[in-house]
Amino acid sequence: MLKYNFKYELKQLLRNRWIQLLSVLLLLLFGFATYNGLQKIEEREKVITAAKEETLRNDESMVMLLDSLDRGMEISVSPWRYPNNPMVVGNYYPRLAAMPSHNFTFIATGQSDMYSHYKKPAVSRSGFMEDYTEMTSPIQLLFGSFDLAFVIVYLLPLLIIAFSYDILSAEKESGSLRLLAAQPIRIENWVLQKLGLRFFWLSVLVILAMLVIFFIFGLNPFVSIKLLLGLIGITIVYMLFWFAVAFLVNVWVGSSARNAVSLLGFWIFFVLLIPSVLNQLGSSLYPMPSRALMINQIRTLQADATKRQDEILDNYLRDHPEYAINDSTQQRTFWHSYFASENLVRQELAPVLENYDLQLEKQQEWISYFKWISPAIITQESITKMAGTSTSDYGNFRKQVEGFSETWRNHFVPYLYNNRNFTKADVVKLPQFEYMALRPKFLSAFTILGIAVIFLALGLFIAIKNRNHLVLSNA
Amino acid sequence: MITTQNLTKKYGDHLALNKLNLTVAEGNIYCLLGANGAGKTTTINLLLGFVQPTSGSASINGIDVTTNSREAKKYLAYIPENLMLYPNLSAMENLDYFSGIAGKSLSKTQLKAFLAEAGLQNNAFEKRIATFSKGMRQKVGISIALAKDAKVLLLDEPTPGLDPSASNEFGLLLQRLKEKGVATLMATHDIFRAREVATHIGIMKDGQLKQQFVASEISLGDLENAYLKTMDYKNALP
């Protein structure tokens, strides 16, 4: 039976123009999504490149100024911006902490609309002051970006629904099902083969359309073969899930109209309802502390610390006798007091900030605990992780920036408290930031596969139980 | 050969078929006459294994259709009232597909021979079914039965919608199958066609087989009167 189904299913799909229509649609959707993704990458890289160039220019200028100062020459800069002051270097010549894109970043915008891809941590700003709230257009946030992830997670299931909702009911409504059922075959096997073949052809079209579009845009997906296979794998498994749902609906529901409505109901449930309900519940159960309150708290603590700067500095030096001993001049500037008070502010703010991170982690844990309910969530998350634009990727970047911010500050503390000047020879010793990307895992595809198998088994059970009903029920 | 013994089907309280005892031997054409709801289609559905009987048994070629429906289907062919084949496939392709899934792999020459035997014109072999009339579609249906080498043919209201010449041609096709030894059970409202093609005729009402005739022993007029009488029709023409 499979040989004949294979041969004539393809012929019918070609003659019905389904293959042609799907090919054109997939090429258009993937093309537009890839174009959008690449545009965003281009903008992102442009911004990072500009920031890099600015850093390089600043560094060149710093080296020139240091050189002039070393030679005892006069320079045309205000004394409080002299780069031989380590705090000036720490504050006005920061390093670039960038999160560069990679070959597959274009597949999902993810959180990249919400967060910046680079930071320049300075000594006068602590890690927690690095804000990550550079929002994009609220309209875009509302509807999401038209990227490959959007096409795969939201639109591909709709194509599958259109391609499979009436696989059994159309035969029933046209009358050919009775003729088929009069043959010595199992009708549930026949439906399964029909859907399996449609799944096969759609998978072939999806893979080909993706590769064609990648090549049209001059991308070489084989550079990151693991990511390419991961993307294809998660897409195919997600499609399999939707075909399994279509199988269940075809053998369970009945008429084409009811099948279509039921499948759209499943789409709303899995793609829209579950993700938004989980998000909403996560936010309600683990609400984020008010950012405005946190900033107020920081300002109050900073104001209080400013009033008590001398006392704080004395306490700080008592805790760090190495600075007091080595310091021959005992010269104290604004920066000495500022650093000491900042440390105190940071210590006092630690529980507030930890609570902020903890709530965020709990929200993410809550979603990850229930995400298996919706393959749409798993697929979206997997694709954004492959793209390196997931929440965890930006969390990772944020942590690395905070860590680097700390390293940057600490690098200048000995200069400050030992009252050492910054020299041209110290430039090469400045800490540099290097982003370490998270490695995407592909295990979630097995979860979707498991859900798909459950739907297939349920469909098969219903089909076998209602074998006769499949042929005779009123369409 | 078709045999039913006390074949009964109930849908809730409704008795759709009541203890039907029927035998259609090889080379016989049995026409079941009756109004809508008389139990003709239920009989065919039971023989096809589409529904399970409440009691009694039925067999095709000696194979019990209730317990071994798939095996029984190897020997039967079925033509529903509106034979809907795949409109985007040609007559050849439809025949190849239905024969193929039934387990018969046929060459192009064999496919053409079966279509020709069913009376389809040569120039229609490669045409898509979408352009076919009901009569032409039925010829493809008959070719499927021929290709399958079916021993039993079940026909559910095959003649409505056929013009007189197509209906006559269809009758001739059934005669040809009869000569090949096929046992045919035809559910119909068409008394004239039943009298023309059948070897045996049964009249059903309310799920029961009320009367049976040997077709050659009854005239068309007597058959019509018997039918109307069975249906309690009071206003028969003189």
Automatic annotation (TrEMBL), chain A:
PANTHER family: ABC TRANSPORTER PERMEASE, ABC-2 TYPE TRANSPORT SYSTEM PERMEASE PROTEIN. The lineage of its organism: Bacteria, Pseudomonadati, Bacteroidota, Flavobacteriia, Flavobacteriales. The chain crosses the membrane at residues 18-38, 141-165, 199-220, 227-253, 259-278, 442-464. The keyword Ligase does not apply. This is ABC transporter permease. The keyword Transmembrane helix applies. Keywords: Membrane, Transmembrane, Transmembrane helix. InterPro entries: DUF3526.
Automatic annotation (TrEMBL), chain B:
PROSITE patterns: ABC_TRANSPORTER_1, ABC_TRANSPORTER_2. The keyword Ubl conjugation does not apply. The keyword Transport applies. Keywords: ATP-binding, Nucleotide-binding, Transport. Gene3D superfamilies: P-loop containing nucleotide triphosphate hydrolases. One of its GO terms (molecular function) is ATP binding. Coiled coil: none annotated. Residues 2-231 form the ABC transporter domain. This is ABC transporter ATP-binding protein. It comes from Aequorivita echinoideorum.
